[in-house]
């Protein structure tokens, strides 16, 4: 069959050329549509159920909320694991499904069970809801809403939080590919009635009476319509409370002589804030921010681009003196990663092309073989797009151009060798076709077996499951796609181009390639003769070297994946268990001040303390994630490497008592947690009775 494919390709050059052109067009289009990210997303297939209950302690949250939800979710089929976190005022139940389960089917099953779970939770305790359809690495864009200099008093933290919730967040939610916009920090505005117990007692009122009065007097009603020919007049009453003054005038009851008792008579009406379980700070103090969460399965780079375009529109609608500033933009990391991958691929391709031309000793032959590299890459990109594999450091960075051109080198080199030994002057096109077919036919089977063996090497990686599969399967698939594309091209494109472009003049003149190969032959001949003569010595030396390699290998360091330099630092900060939110804010603000003053490399320090409005990452109030935004590496003065700078920062922060810091990177921090449940490289679990 391979012979017939080669024969068809050589004698039907136009058809092969059309297919090659189609490959280029389709590949370029697929390149524009390929999902791009920095690293593979290793989040398992999960649905989170979040319930907030501001008045309950952790023990009651576990008994009244988490346990009923867990028991209900455990009845769903295709579930691998159900786990929960119960904190003061918060329950987060995570339902992990098998990897082959559709996420929308999983959410439908959870939604149906939530009706049953809600019936088992006491009324008024809390209402369970599903978290957004995002992943552990879905936090693609983070920003701060802050007042411009001189407007601090006009826009306090409560006003900024209102702007974030009602202006910024609501406009961002309409962006395609955005699952949720999570608010963080500030004070959630509330209308409060501070009751005076003595006045309540004097009027024989209870708190329940006040609540019922507020509910009765806060609503609009309709009254049908009045037909007054020729017009119809619709009747409605307006009773929604719209200001503090209107709340003060709400009637609670009337005395025996008909005097109304108003809310303002028994308490003070004012603006207040809801209980906080988290905060956000920067160099200047407390701030308000937002986290844009990516919809699962969307193209990160494209969604970030849409978010940034929408942000430009939102800035035009903000009140005077309010500014939005992004502090974590995933597209910047993606651009840096893709620049590194692209540079390495281009350098590798140029080296391969240079070696090919040098050793083949023929510019045309070298270019024919080298042209397989971009064509095989385009084929791989097409298959990646069809298979849902994203372009990232793991998938694209593993491509080896030496493996890709292996089959093409064999075909072209065999053809040149065949032509040189044939002799006979200049060939016609028909003779050239026959010579290329004859040489390719003889060597193609051996080359095919070599490429198939390389593909078989990646089969064990393709069957990996879990986190390992999510991390390494894209690499194996991409390399396999590229080798498969090169294999198909070596059967079709390479024979066709060899017959069309290689010189038809069979007269050979010795060149630098021949002289170089003669030199290597002279060096190699005595070596191979000596090896055949002293077989025992060669075998013994090989065994000794193998033993030494095992010893060296056992002493080498190892890691799950190479560390990607993200350009920023993330500090996992922990205070003593039970520390208050205000204490955590104070310590984190002190750490930010130290970092900013002692390290000129630091551009900004943003700290996320506790849980956000939607607690997909439910940290306690004594924990914080401190993001250190760094300048470009060529502007560093305190250290030359990332490790050295991290060590110096850790030493500087040791002066803060009662606080522990762990230096990592934003994505690395989340990846470690997703892999092992521990954010740092080393974790200790303590068991006991």
UniProtKB/TrEMBL annotation:
The membrane-spanning stretches of this chain are 341-360, 367-387, 393-412, 448-467, 479-502, 532-553
Regarding the membrane, this protein is recorded as:
Multi-pass membrane protein
- Its signal peptide is none
Q: Cross-referenced InterPro entries, in alphabetical order?
A: AcrB_DN_DC_subdom, Acrflvin-R, CusA-like
Q: Where in the cell is it found?
A: Cell membrane
Keywords assigned: Cell membrane, Membrane, Transmembrane, Transmembrane helix, Transport
Which GO terms of the molecular function aspect are on file? monoatomic cation transmembrane transporter activity; xenobiotic transmembrane transporter activity
Q: Which Pfam families match?
A: ACR_tran
Q: Name one GO cellular component term.
A: plasma membrane
Please give the family membership noted in the entry.
Belongs to the resistance-nodulation-cell division (RND) (TC 2.A.6) family.
Q: In its UniProt entry, what is this protein called?
A: Efflux RND transporter permease subunit
């Amino acid at each position: 069959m391979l012979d017939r494919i080669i024969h068809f390709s050589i004698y039907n050059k136009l058809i092969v050329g059309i297919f090659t052109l189609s490959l280029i067009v389709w590949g370029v289009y697929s390149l524009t549509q390929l999902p791009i990210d920095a690293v593979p997303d290793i989040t398992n297939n999960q649905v989170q159920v979040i319930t907030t209950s501001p008045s309950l302690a952790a023990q009651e949250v576990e008994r009244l909320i988490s346990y009923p939800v867990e028991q209900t979710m455990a009845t769903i089929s295709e579930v691998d694991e159900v786990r929960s976190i119960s904190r003061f005022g918060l329950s987060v139940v995570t339902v992990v499904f098998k990897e082959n389960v559709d996420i929308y089917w999983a959410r439908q099953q959870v939604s149906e069970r939530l009706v049953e779970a809600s019936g088992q939770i006491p009324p008024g305790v809390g209402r369970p809801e599903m978290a957004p359809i995002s992943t552990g690495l879905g936090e693609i864009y983070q920003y701060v809403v802050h007042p411009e200099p001189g407007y601090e008093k006009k826009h306090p933290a409560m006003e900024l939080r209102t702007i974030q919730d009602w202006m910024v967040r609501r406009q961002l939610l309409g962006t395609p590919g955005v699952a949720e916009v999570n608010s963080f920090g500030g004070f959630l505005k509330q209308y409060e009635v501070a009751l005076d117990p003595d006045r309540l007692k004097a009027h024989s009122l209870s708190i329940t009476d006040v609540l019922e009065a507020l509910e009765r007097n806060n609503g609009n009603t309709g009254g049908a319509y009045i037909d007054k020919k020729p017009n119809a007049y619709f009747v409605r009453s307006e009773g929604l409370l719209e200001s503090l003054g209107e709340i003060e005038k709400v009637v609670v009851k009337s005395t025996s002589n008909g005097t109304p008792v108003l809310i303002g008579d028994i308490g003070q009406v004012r603006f207040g804030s809801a209980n906080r379980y988290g905060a956000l700070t920067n160099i200047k103090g407390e701030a308000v921010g937002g986290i844009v969460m990516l919809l699962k399965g969307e193209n990160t780079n494209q969604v970030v681009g849409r978010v940034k375009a929408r942000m430009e529109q939102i800035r035009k609608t903000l009140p005077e003196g309010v500014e939005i500033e992004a502090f974590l933009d995933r597209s910047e990391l993606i651009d840096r990663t893709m620049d590194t991958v692209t540079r390495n691929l281009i350098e590798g391709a140029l080296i391969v092309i240079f070696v090919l031309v040098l050793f083949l000793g023929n510019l045309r032959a070298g270019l024919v073989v080298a042209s397989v590299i971009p064509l095989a890459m385009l084929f791989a990109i097409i298959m990646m797009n069809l298979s849902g594999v994203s372009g990232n450091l793991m998938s694209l960075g593993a491509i080896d151009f030496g493996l890709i051109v292996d089959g093409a080198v064999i075909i072209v080199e065999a053809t040149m060798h065949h032509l040189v030994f044939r002799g006979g002057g200049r060939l016609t096109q028909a003779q050239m076709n026959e010579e290329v077919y004859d040489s390719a036919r003889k060597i193609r089977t051996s080359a095919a077996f070599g490429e198939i063996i390389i593909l078989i090497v990646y089969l064990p990686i393709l069957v990996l499951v879990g986190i390992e599969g999510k991390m390494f399967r894209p690499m194996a698939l991409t390399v396999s796609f590229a080798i498969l594309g090169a294999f198909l091209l070596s059967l079709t494109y390479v024979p066709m181009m060899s017959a069309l472009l290689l010189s038809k003049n069979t007269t050979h003149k010795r060149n630098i390639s021949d002289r170089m190969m003669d030199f290597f032959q002279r060096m190699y001949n005595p070596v191979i003769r000596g090896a055949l003569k002293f077989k025992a010595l060669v075998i013994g030396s090989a065994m000794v070297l193998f033993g030494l390699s095992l010893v060296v290998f056992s002493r080498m360091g190892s890691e799950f994946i190479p560390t990607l330099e993200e350009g920023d630092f993330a500090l996992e900060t922990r205070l003593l268990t039970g520390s208050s939110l205000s204490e955590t804010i104070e310590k984190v603000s002190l750490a930010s001040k130290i970092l900013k003053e002692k390290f000129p490399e630091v551009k900004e320090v943003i700290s996320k303390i506790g849980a956000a409005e939607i607690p997909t990452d439910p940290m306690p109030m004594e924990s914080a994630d401190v993001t250190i935004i760094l300048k470009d590496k060529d502007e560093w003065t305190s250290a030359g490497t990332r490790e050295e700078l991290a060590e110096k920062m850790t030493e500087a922060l040791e002066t803060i008592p009662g606080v522990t810091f762990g230096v990592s990177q934003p994505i690395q921090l989340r990846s470690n947690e997703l892999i092992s449940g521990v954010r740092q490289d080393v974790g200790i679990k303590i068991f006991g009775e």
